Amino acid sequence: YPSEFLVQKITEDNQIPLHLHVSVSLQYVAGLKGNALVEFFHGNIAEVENEELRHLMWSSVLFYKAPNVEVMACVLLSTKAVYFLLDDSFIHADEHQSEFWTKENWDCDNSSFHLSCCFVLKLNDLQSVNVGLFDQYFRIAGHSADHIVTCLTRDSYDTHTFIQQLMAVLSLLARTPSPEPVDKDFYSEFGSKNTGKMENYELIHSSRVKFIYPNEEEIGDLAFLVAEKMDCLTDPQSLNILLYVLAFQVNLIEGSTPNTSLLQPKTLILTSSDLFLFNEDYISYPLPDFAKEPPQRDKYQLADGRRIRHLDRVLMGYQTYPQALTFVFDDVQNQDLMQNLALDHFGE
C-alpha cells in the first residue's frame, strides 16, 4: 500500500498538458484521483501482484520502429516495469507498422467502450538511458528495436524527476553484481589518451544500466552545423548557442474553427544572430548497438532560419504555460536587403 504522500504526488502529476489532445480513454485515466488511480493501476495495468506504482508522468513518446509518429502517453513507473499507456489514435495512425502491434480487434461495437494500448518495458530488459541536450528528452533502450522509446518531456524538471525515480527502482532489482572494476583515475576513465577528447559522460548504475549524458562536443557539433546552415563566414568557434528548446510550431488549419491548430514538433535554436527551427531525430541517435547502418535522415534538418536583425516584434499570448510566442519578421523573401541593393546597384 503506497504512502499518503506518494498517492498525493501521483495524483498531482496526473494532469494532461493543456495544449495536447488525447483520446477519451486517456481522459478517463487523467480523471482518476488518489486511491482510485492506484487501484486502476493494479486492476488493469500491473502484471504481477506485488509491484508498486512509484511515479506517473504525462509525456509525448516516440518508438524506434515508428519514428515519425509522436503520440501522447501516460508513463507509469513501477518496481517491475515502465508502462506506456498510449492514445488509441496511434494504433490507427501507424497501420504500416502492423508487425509492431498485434492488432486483434481494436474496434468495438459498443461506442461507450474505449480501449487503450499499453506498451510494457520490463526493468530487467532495460540496458541504457540516453539523456538529451539540456534534459529536454530521454531515450530508454532495451535489447532490440522493439524496446527503444523516447520520452519528449520538453521539460528538464520532468526528465530529472523521472531519471531519479528510475534509478531508485533499479536499485531494488536483484541482479548479479558486475565484477569489481580496476581503480582508474578520472582521465583514464573518461578520456582518450590518443585524442585527448572527453567522451560522453556515462554513469553505470548498480543494476548495470548505463545512464549516458551529452558532453560538450555535442554542443560544438551543433554549433558547427548551425554555422553551416547560416551560409556565411561565421567561425563556428565564435558562434554561441544561447538557447536550445523542444517546442511546437503552430500551424492554423484552413477552413476550420478559429481555435483549431496543428502543432508540429520542432527544435528551436537561438544564436546571437539567428533564430532556427530544426526537425530533429530524437529516437535514432546515438545509434543502438544492433543498428547495421545509419538512419535514413540526419539528426538535424533545417526547417526555417531567420536573422534576428529582421525581427520586428514578438507577440506573447496571455494563457498559462506553455506560452505561445509569435515572431514577426520584416525581411523581404528572407534575404539580406542591403546586400542585394549593393549587388544590384554597385556590382556588375
Sum up the structure in keywords:
2 domains, alpha+beta, 30% strand, 22% helix, PH-domain like, nine-stranded mixed beta sheet, four-stranded antiparallel beta sheet, 348 residues, globular, 8 helices, 15 strands
Describe the structure.
- The chain has 348 residues and is an alpha+beta fold.
- The protein folds into two domains: 4-173, Roll (PH-domain like); 217-329, Roll (PH-domain like).
- 22% of the residues lie in helices and 30% in strands.
- The protein contains eight helices and 15 strands.
- It has helices spanning 4-13, 24-30, 34-45, 89-93, 156-170, 186-190, 216-229, 337-346; strands spanning 53-63, 66-78, 81-86, 117-122, 128-131, 138-141, 148-152, 201-204, 210-213, 241-252, 261-271, 274-280, 300-307, 311-316, 325-329.
- Strands 4-3-2-1-7-6-5-9-8 form a nine-stranded mixed β-sheet. A four-stranded antiparallel β-sheet has the order 10-11-12-13.
- A hairpin with an 8-residue loop joins strand 10 (241-252) and strand 11.
- Helix 1 packs across helix 3.
- The longest helix is centred in the middle third of the chain and has 15 residues, at 156-170.
- The chain is globular and about 65 Å long.
- Residues 191-198 and 336-343 have low confidence and may be disordered.
- GO terms for molecular function: kinesin binding.
- It is found in: Cytoplasm.
- InterPro entries: PH_domain-containing_M2 (IPR053015), PH_NISCH_C (IPR057714), PH_PLEKHM2 (IPR057288).
- Keywords: Cytoplasm.
- Residues 114-178 form the PLEKHM2 PH domain.
